[in-house]
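dumping this here so i dont lose it
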């Protein structure tokens, strides 16, 4: 397998854990990862945007899995990365490996057309859709797993500040999918017919505010919120971005509020899927163990809301 962009990310970790036991993996990414060789992965140090000869890397490869992307950036970052991936797709037309591309679900039109993160991602999606390669495009919604940068960061933030921001009325939905399940889905769906484009939701569709209430509860805290209007949330995340924070990006707020992330549950052969609850319990327990003795958890009581515009 040629793993493209298999740096230290959440999806990479899950793909390697799923495939390493019986696949030979060569991974193209930029930064070294501790114990990568021990996990059975051979690292080719390269920037996907600048690989001069994809055909050489594709020699003898049965399966390409692309996980390369960035969470933020502009034209300068995304255009060359997309060009590199388009060259890879072009080169793959010669040797015709199966080609898995991890993409993202549909987003509001404002993001689809105006945001380099998405407009360039869609160039890659479209190139594969138009190709005659045996491809599988998977477009998962919000992923969770050990070391993820969303739910575990949200728990840490709640624990640390005891308040959490909620955008709008919190009535939009998410259907979290375990990164390990994504990797299992990839493996099982590869056995099906090629040329598919799957949007993937996890087994439970949560109202966002119910999920954050549950997270507070698992931490033994009463839910306390700063209410932000959409405009206020966008201004806040824009300011955070300007100061170099990667906590949350403006486009992520817009996407969340569009209520397009509560995708229906995956219903294919890789069932059953893990619900998010037990994962949150484990993560909350880990956090509490780490801080026990310093700030004892308080019993859960009715929540408190603050409103900011
Ligand atoms: N996490 C989620 O909730 C989620 C949900 C839906 C879809 N996805 C998609 O799943 C894929 C992986 O997501 P993730 O959360 O695992 O992201 P991630 O942690 O940011 O991993 C992406 C990887 O791409 C590598 N990469 C980026 N630019 C590169 C370049 N020019 N050359 C080589 N490698 C490069 C990075 O490694 P280095 O920077 O170390 O090179 C990084 O390890 C992405 O396409 C993402 O859009 C993620």
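and the seq i came up w/
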């Amino acid at each position: 397998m040629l793993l493209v962009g298999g740096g230290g990310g959440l999806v990479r970790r899950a793909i390697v854990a799923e495939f390493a036991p019986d696949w030979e993996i060569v991974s193209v990414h930029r930064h070294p990862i501790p114990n990568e060789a021990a996990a059975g992965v051979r690292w080719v140090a390269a920037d996907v945007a600048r690989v001069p000869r994809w055909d050489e890397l594709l020699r003898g490869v049965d399966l390409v899995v692309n996980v390369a992307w960035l969470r933020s950036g502009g034209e300068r970052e995304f255009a060359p990365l997309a060009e590199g991936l388009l060259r890879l797709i072009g080169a793959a037309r010669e040797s015709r490996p199966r080609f898995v591309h991890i993409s993202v679900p549909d987003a509001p039109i404002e993001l689809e057309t105006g945001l380099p993160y998405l407009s360039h991602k869609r160039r890659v999606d479209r190139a594969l859709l138009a190709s005659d390669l045996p491809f599988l495009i998977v477009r998962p919604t919000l992923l969770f797993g050990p070391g993820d940068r969303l739910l575990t960061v949200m728990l840490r933030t709640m624990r640390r500040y005891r308040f959490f921001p909620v955008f709008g009325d919190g009535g939009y939905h998410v259907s979290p999918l375990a990164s390990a399940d994504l990797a299992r889905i990839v493996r099982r769906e590869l056995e099906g017919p090629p040329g598919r484009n799957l949007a993937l939701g996890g087994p439970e569709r949560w109202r966002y505010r119910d999920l954050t209430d549950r997270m507070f509860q698992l931490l033994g805290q009463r839910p306390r919120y700063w209410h932000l209007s959409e405009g206020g949330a966008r201004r806040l995340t824009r300011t955070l971005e300007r100061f170099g924070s990667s906590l949350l990006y403006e486009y992520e707020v817009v996407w969340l509020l569009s209520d397009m992330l509560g995708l229906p549950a995956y219903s294919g052969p890789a069932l059953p899927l893990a619900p998010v609850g037990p994962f949150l319990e484990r993560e909350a327990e880990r956090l509490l163990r780490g801080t026990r003795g310093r700030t004892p958890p308080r019993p859960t009581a009715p929540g408190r809301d603050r409103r900011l515009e």
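Residues 5, 7-12, 29-31, 47-49, 67-71, 81, 102, 104, 140, 142-143 surround NAP (CB under 6 Å).
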